[in-house]
């Protein structure tokens, strides 16, 4: 009896020792620690590797971790082998390991969160077998290609700030139930998402040289297409988005195609894409409804939305191209006048020839008409400022609002405070923009924006800008006076 009892006790002791080695949480400090828990095969509790002084850790026989696996702040660590690992029930975090070059987790199929961040020398990640992951984040590594993420679904995916990453392919990803952000990787990086159908949150594609998402049907929150270098952006089967679409600062973008898009839940904002000169018939061929607004600023020559029937709030087009606003207006008859703005910027040198009637549309005619009328005025105004500053005084309305370099004043002070001090200063006009306050009519006045240089004696030239609001002189047709003057040295 006694012997049996002792044997039982001993067995009990061994069993308890086993529990201690393979559960409860462990901080790895050496290769020996690593091989010891590796022998457990299954570990319950968190495994952390932090600030260890070894170069290599091999967890070859560790198959499952019920807990988190955290490798962080290890300056000397170069490689971590996890050749047997199939499952991490919690998070797998590799963070701030300065010299870490590679990680192999070839058999890992399931992890709740995979976060690989700030390992600046990491250029090898073998994670080919992950089929289940909720949150995946890969940022600030030296990885050059990412083709090994094989999961079909995730909650969120962020791939950012990997300066060498030129190719991102997610062959199996069908759905992101929260957000998808691919941004600020190598400027030549190409993104391919061949089977992605749904993003149930926000999508951000930034700094990409090409984007391929041929199956994407739905983006629930906003779509951000920002600072990409792609020439063409195409979403051939996207049907709707419940939020905004932003297409901003894509410097090479020439063509956009949202071939099946029917509804935009909120706004369509297209801005600062210098080569996007047309919103073509095939850009938004099926788009019927926009829940908020269209705001399009750029060098547009033509704009077409063939099926658009509803924009809830407002439409604004501001073009520095040859857009014909009055022709464009006829496409949007469903909009009231007070929800419609279309304007043209024209930037012409003061001595430039703006009088080529054959290329003018109705609204640019108004602008150019204004330009030719203001041209003489501006010419004289600056000539006078250079030679006899006091002469410009009579061009100001008696109640003109005047501000020179932030000093507000009335016409009565202009002479003593400014004009009398301008002797010897020459004004050179480089460009002026002229804009009728009312699109179709210059009689309500014009905004003139002037950029140029001041030359004064030994001083090298100094840039200035000046905004003048000119109003027709009611008693003398075709004469203007200055209602508002805001001048700044730059
Ligand atoms: C990164 O790890 C190093 C040790 O390798 C540590 O000194 C440093 O504070 C860590 N940086 C951050 C941001 O945690
Ligand atoms: C056109 O004018 C708008 C404001 O009126 C401005 O925001 C935009 O930058 C201008 N575009 C160009 C190309 O000058
Ligand atoms: C064209 O401009 C003139 C003003 O110059 C305006 O009276 C006319 O209504 C405009 N035409 C259209 C179709 O907007
Ligand atoms: C006027 O514009 C048309 C069309 O852009 C162009 O063919 C023509 O050469 C221009 N004429 C002048 C005098 O600049
Ligand atoms: C410039 O000065 C002349 C007088 O020398 C004056 O008739 C003219 O109105 C002035 N023009 C402007 C734009 O200041
Ligand atoms: C420019 O010349 C004036 C006198 O004419 C002198 O007082 C001033 O110091 C000179 N400025 C520079 C930058 O040389």
TrEMBL record:
SUPFAM superfamilies this protein is in?
L domain-like, NTF2-like
Grouped into one coarse class, the protein's main location is secreted
Query: PROSITE patterns recorded for this chain?
Result: NTF2_DOMAIN
Q: Span of the secretion signal? A: 1-18
NTF2 domain boundaries: 373-489
What keywords were assigned to this record?
Answer: Cell wall, Glycoprotein, Secreted, Signal
One GO biological process term is: fungal-type cell wall organization
Q: Does the keyword Transcription regulation apply?
A: no
Superkingdom to which the source organism belongs: Eukaryota
User: Membrane-spanning residues where?
Assistant: none
Where in or outside the cell?
Secreted, Cell wall
A GO cellular component entry from the record: cell surface
- What name does the UniProt record give this protein? NTF2 domain-containing protein
Q: What organism, scientifically named, is this protein from?
A: Furculomyces boomerangus
The beginning of the lineage is: Eukaryota, Fungi, Fungi incertae sedis, Zoopagomycota, Kickxellomycotina
């Amino acid at each position: 009896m006694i012997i049996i009892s002792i044997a039982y006790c001993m067995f009990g002791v061994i069993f308890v020792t086993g529990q201690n080695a393979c559960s409860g949480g462990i901080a790895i400090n050496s290769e020996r620690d690593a091989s010891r828990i590796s022998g457990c095969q299954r570990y319950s509790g968190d495994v952390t590797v932090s600030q260890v002084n070894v170069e290599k850790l091999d967890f070859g026989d560790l198959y499952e971790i019920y807990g988190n696996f955290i490798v962080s702040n290890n300056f000397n660590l170069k490689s971590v082998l996890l050749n047997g690992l199939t499952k991490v029930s919690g998070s797998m975090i590799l963070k701030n390991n300065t010299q870490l070059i590679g990680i192999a987790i070839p058999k890992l199929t399931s992890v709740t969160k995979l976060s690989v961040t700030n390992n600046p020398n990491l250029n090898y990640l073998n994670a080919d077998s992950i089929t289940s992951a909720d949150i995946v984040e890969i940022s600030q590594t030296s990885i050059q290609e990412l083709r090994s993420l094989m999961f079909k679904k995730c909650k969120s995916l962020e791939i950012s700030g990997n300066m060498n990453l030129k190719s991102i392919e997610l062959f199996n990803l069908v759905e992101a139930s929260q957000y998808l952000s691919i941004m600020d990787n190598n400027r030549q990086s190409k993104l391919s998402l061949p089977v992605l159908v749904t993003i149930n949150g926000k999508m951000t594609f930034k700094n990409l040289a090409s984007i391929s998402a041929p199956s994407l049907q739905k983006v629930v929150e906003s779509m951000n297409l920002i600072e990409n270098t792609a020439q063409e952006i195409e979403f051939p089967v996207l049907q709707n988005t419940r939020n905004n679409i932003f297409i901003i600062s894509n410097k090479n973008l020439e063509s956009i195609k949202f071939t099946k898009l029917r509804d935009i839940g909120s706004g369509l904002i297209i801005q600062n894409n210098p080569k996007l000169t047309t919103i073509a018939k095939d850009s938004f061929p099926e788009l019927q409804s926009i829940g908020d607004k269209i705001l399009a600023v750029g060098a547009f020559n033509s704009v077409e939305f063939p099926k658009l029937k509803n924009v809830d709030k407002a439409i604004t087009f501001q073009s520095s191209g040859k857009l014909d606003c009055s022709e464009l207006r006829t496409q949007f008859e469903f909009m009231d006048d007070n929800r419609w703005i279309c304007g043209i910027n024209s930037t012409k040198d003061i001595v430039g020839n703006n009088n080529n009637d054959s290329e003018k549309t109705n609204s640019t005619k108004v602008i150019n008409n204004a330009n030719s009328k203001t041209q003489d005025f501006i010419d004289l105004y600056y000539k006078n400022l250079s030679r006899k500053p006091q002469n410009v005084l009579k061009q100001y309305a008696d109640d003109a609002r005047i501000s020179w370099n932030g000093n507000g004043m009335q016409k009565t002070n202009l002479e003593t405070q400014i004009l009398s001090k301008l002797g010897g200063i020459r004004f050179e006009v480089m460009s002026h923009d002229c804009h009728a306050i009312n699109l179709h009519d210059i009689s309500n006045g014009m905004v003139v924006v002037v950029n140029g240089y001041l030359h004064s004696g030994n001083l090298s030239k100094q840039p200035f800008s000046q905004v003048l609001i000119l109003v027709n002189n009611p008693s003398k047709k075709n004469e203007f006076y200055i209602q508002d003057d805001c001048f700044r040295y730059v």
